[in-house]
Design a protein that fits this description.
The chain is of the alpha/beta class. Helices cover 31% and strands 28% of the residues.
Length: 556
């Protein structure tokens, strides 16, 4: 019994895990699951680079796509070089596919611009970061936040065009692009190249207007109201209100040329200062001539038209041109060289011409008397243009000349210069006239005329004195009385003549008396003839006349 009891006392028991450890194990598992869930739902962390952190707050500023939250700013710090702002944000897992290379982000806040007022809803809710997904296949977690909303959003249909221009033609981002007054796009970027001293712009032309940009398009700046007063008259170009305020760029095509084929994106064009300069570049075919002007070139400027009988066929390129050339100092020392371009494309239907044919034609016309003359185009501004015309007298003195390797076109004096020369010749002739005898004779004539005027003045005074006498003043009344008496006498005589009718006795007696008087006059006629032939016949006998000689009988 004792041995059995001893054996029972030495029996060992198996150890077991306490149930109390179940709680911390479950809590650990829950914690790990929460950590995993939080990590998977928190999304990817990205780094944003900004130039200004205005309106951005850690833990408050949201990141949105089409007004849907996809992330939040977690931290806002300065970069190590203190040159920009670094913003750490976290994006939801569903939005991670949007984090590619060409994704664009910008801050949405209240703005006032050409498009109007935008972002007013952020006045209450605060600024937020808008994200525009890209199409690139390359993923990234670092982005540059734009200062302004992008002009052309990723995926928008249209065409991008590059422009190269001078500094004076600089455009700003957001300026409108117009076609015949209609806004068709915007300026996307503007960068200055200090080495080439040029401005490089990128334009975005929206669909469906992108087909208007062709290989024959020309671009020019639009700055306010363009008023031009030159030899061609007065011109005023008034753009849209938006372009008038902010400027912008316009493009177009020549009226007499086809539009051409549409261009692909990233095609480069030149940016011109104005529409006239852009359209002038269309005529890229030209023949160069030099004018050696002996008269003044005042009023003639670069870009002035060259016309043939009123039709524009060219342009003045430089005034003067190579003024210090040794050829001018040697052979044309007093002439001013002017370079002109004759542009046959202005007369061609499609803007293209055979240059060799035109050179031969111009050479033939020069031999026939073609010459250039400076004529006034606008009396207000004093601007002049080059006028080409034919003159039969010019071809007699024409000879082929060249200046700096270019043919010389003969010139003649302007109309004003010809008038001045004629006036100068007239004044020279007047100076050579001996006018002193003429002036002395004229002085004598004036003195005689003055004496005559004095005599006429004295005679008029005498006439006035005569007219003022009482007898002369009574003459009108006396003449009136005499006229009345004469009128009474004529009336009495008229009554007497009315009484002498053919049946009256007085008329018959008057007729008898006249007959007797006629007979007496016939009787007196022989006596009057005798006295006429021999006045002394009254005292002496009349001389006998010669006896009449009978006529001989007629011969048988």
């Amino acid at each position: 019994m004792t041995e059995n009891n001893h054996m029972l006392a030495n029996v060992s028991k198996q150890a077991r895990i306490s149930p109390i450890w179940i709680v911390p194990i479950v809590a650990l598992l829950i914690g790990l699951w929460l950590i995993y869930d939080n990590y998977t739902k928190a999304g990817k962390q990205i780094i944003l680079s900004m130039t200004n952190a205005e309106g951005i707050e850690a833990g408050k500023t949201k990141i949105k796509v089409h007004s849907v939250d996809i992330g939040q700013v977690e931290q806002v710090t300065l970069s190590e070089d203190l040159g920009h702002i670094e913003v750490i944000a976290r994006i939801t897992p569903k939005a991670e596919p949007m984090l590619v290379k060409d994704t664009q982000l910008w801050v949405v806040k209240p703005r006032i611009g050409l498009e109007g007022i935008s972002g007013l809803n952020t006045v209450i809710s605060g600024a937020y970061i808008e994200l525009q997904p890209g199409k690139s296949a390359e993923e990234t977690d670092q982005f540059n936040v734009l200062d302004q909303p992008p002009i052309s959003l990723n995926g928008a249909k249209g065409v991008h065009v590059n422009l190269i221009g001078k500094v004076g033609n600089a455009l700003r981002v957001g300026d409108p692009v117009t076609y015949q007054g209609l806004r068709v796009g915007r300026v996307v970027s503007a960068v200055f190249d200090p080495k080439q001293r040029q401005m490089k712009h990128e334009l975005f032309i929206e669909h469906p207007y992108d087909v208007l940009v062709t290989e024959n398009s020309r671009f020019w700046t639009t700055v306010g109201i363009d008023v031009k007063l030159d030899s061609e008259g007065f011109k005023a170009n008034i753009p849209t209100v938006e372009s008038m305020i902010a400027g912008g760029v316009s493009f177009g095509h020549a009226d007499d040329r086809p539009m051409g084929k549409p261009v692909v994106s990233e095609t480069t064009f030149e940016l011109y200062a104005n529409e006239d300069a852009a359209r002038q570049q269309i005529y890229d075919q030209f023949i160069e001539y030099v004018l050696l002007v002996d008269d003044t070139v005042r009023g003639l400027s670069k870009g002035a038209p060259v016309e043939f009988r009123g039709l524009r066929i060219g342009t003045v390129i430089s005034v003067p041109w190579k003024f210090n050339s040794p050829e001018r100092k040697k052979d044309f020392r007093y002439a001013i060289p002017v370079l002109i371009h004759l542009e046959p494309g202005r007369l061609a239907e499609n803007g293209k011409a055979d240059l060799q044919e035109w050179k031969d034609r111009m050479h033939h016309m020069l031999q026939r008397g073609l010459h250039a003359t400076l004529k006034s185009g606008n009396l207000i501004t004093g601007s002049v243009f080059v006028d080409l015309n034919m003159d039969q007298h010019v071809h007699k003195t024409y000879r082929t000349q060249r200046f700096e390797g270019l043919p010389v076109m003969p010139t003649t004096a302007t109309n004003l210069a010809q008038i001045e020369q004629k006036l100068s010749d007239l004044l020279d002739k007047l100076n050579r006239l001996n006018v002193e005898p003429v002036l002395s004779g004229l002085d004598k004539n004036l003195q005689q005329s003055e004496k005559t005027m004095q005599e006429i003045r004295a005679l008029s005074q005498q006439v006035n004195q005569l007219l003022n006498q009482p007898d002369v003043q009574q003459m009108p009344s006396n003449m009136n009385q005499t006229m009345q008496e004469l009128r009474a006498t004529m009336q009495a005589l008229r009554g007497t003549l009315q009484g002498l009718s053919p049946e009256s006795t007085a008329y018959q007696e008057l007729t008898t008396t006249l007959q007797r008087l006629d007979k007496a006059l016939r009787d007196i006629q022989p006596l009057a003839r005798t006295l006429n032939e021999q006045p002394n016949a009254i005292l002496f006998d009349r001389k006998p006349g010669n006896d009449p000689v009978p006529l001989a009988p007629a011969k048988p």
